[in-house]
Amino acid sequence: MKEIIPLLKDLIRFKTMHSAPEEIDRCIDFICDWLKKRDLPVRRIDHNGTPSVISMPGRDRVPVLLMSHIDVVDGADELFEPVEREGSLYGRGSVDDKYAAALSLVLMARFADRLKNAGRSIDDLPLGILITGDEEVGGYNGAKRALKEIRADFAIALDGGEPDKIVTKEKGILRLKLTAKGKAAHGARPWLGENAIENLMADYEKIRPFFADQSAPEYWHRTVNLGTIRGGKSVNQVPDSAEAMLDIRYTENDDVDRLLADIREGISGEIQVMEREPLLISDPSPYLDLLLETAKAQGLETVTGVEHGASDARYLSDYGIDGVVWGAESEMSQHTPEEHLVIDSLEKVYHTMEAFLQRVESIDGKRRKE
Q: Is the pTM of this model over 0.85?
């Protein structure tokens, strides 16, 4: 913790919001310099203005990849000054997700030092790291692009969560634009027009029955959220057009094409697919088994579970990499003014990761000698 916490505080002080892209650049440069000063491999890649850092040993394939990101949601200036209080570290990005970047960097450095002290090459490292700059806005130019450059057997997307749950399933994302048309008229004579906003709401009420009761928050089913509505130009005019954005999260039990066809058939307006992102479904893996065994040996009661949100881990299957999502405790504070990391949980994750990677290193070394 004497290494990780000061590094994490340094990272938090960068205001890495997407409204301040220069801060994302500065933070990525800081990480590159940190790696270079320790003679660790480092490669920065930029895609459509989004920077990422890859640190991989000089070998064809690495056993374990650690993924994290340094971009954050917007926050007030004071949130970028880290504060320790009652066993937690407060600040924007403390748990989503700069602690994971700090943890990955320190693990990489510690394992590299061990290898050097043993007279071995850092090419024998059991891990590589990927740190990206656009997870909060979809990861399209970060993880989705950077993973093309990486070959790994297993990946752990370190993110805010809890040490006792390793996420093996995350819902997929379907974002739709619903458009309704009407006929303009003066607001004093609405009978001469057709209100597009009313048509839009009528269509939304036809869409709602395709989704189960959403009052049971932990039930594993598809959900819909009416995120934004736009329509009308003046209060005294009947609007002739309106649109809404729908955020749908679906599970492996859903036929997305059938769902889209049924929605289109049932409404009067138009549906346009704006985004369609895959689920994370982790396949059985000896690395996952080993991680669970190691967590148990460290005194944790870690089990596998599901998550309703999405992360960059959803891109792993596109490149044939098994993976999970795991992390330190946030007490569900991410994206709030009270965002914080429970420091004790970070220590548990660190010691478990260290022991896990030591076992991976031993197994990998034996395999490479055979």
A: yes
